[in-house]
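FORM 12-B: Structure-to-Sequence Request
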């Protein structure tokens, strides 16, 4: 059990994966609820489509070490969030660059998670 996260584009099984990157999950959960303010759904097994602006903002947040703190979610690995954030920083930036390139080529990028 735990938090598994993926990002890819429609029609392609390739993309990025993370395991228990709790701060990224908090960020994406917040973004999901910003984009869906009327939703009462839990952000689990939901697709979050990312715009160019979403990815540019995420890249800036990652580069400046500003991913939000995870206050809980035992199965998310919150007790290891500082280590995970450091370990995934390079991958997070690479993901953002990959996503931006694919968005420029007309692809629809989405993020989803399962916990």
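FORM 12-B RESPONSE
SEQUENCE OUT:
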């Amino acid at each position: 059990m735990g938090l598994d996260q993926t990002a890819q584009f429609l029609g392609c099984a390739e993309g990025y994966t993370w395991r228990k990157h709790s701060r990224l999950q908090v960020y994406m959960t917040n973004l999901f609820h910003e984009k869906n303010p009327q939703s009462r759904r839990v952000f689990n097994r939901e697709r979050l489509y990312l715009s160019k602006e979403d990815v540019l903002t995420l890249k800036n947040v990652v580069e400046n070490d500003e991913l939000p703190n995870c206050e809980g979610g035992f199965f998310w690995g919150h007790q290891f969030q500082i280590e995970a954030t450091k370990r995934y920083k390079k991958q997070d930036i690479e993901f953002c660059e990959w996503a931006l390139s694919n968005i420029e080529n007309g692809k629809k990028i989405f993020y989803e998670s399962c916990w």
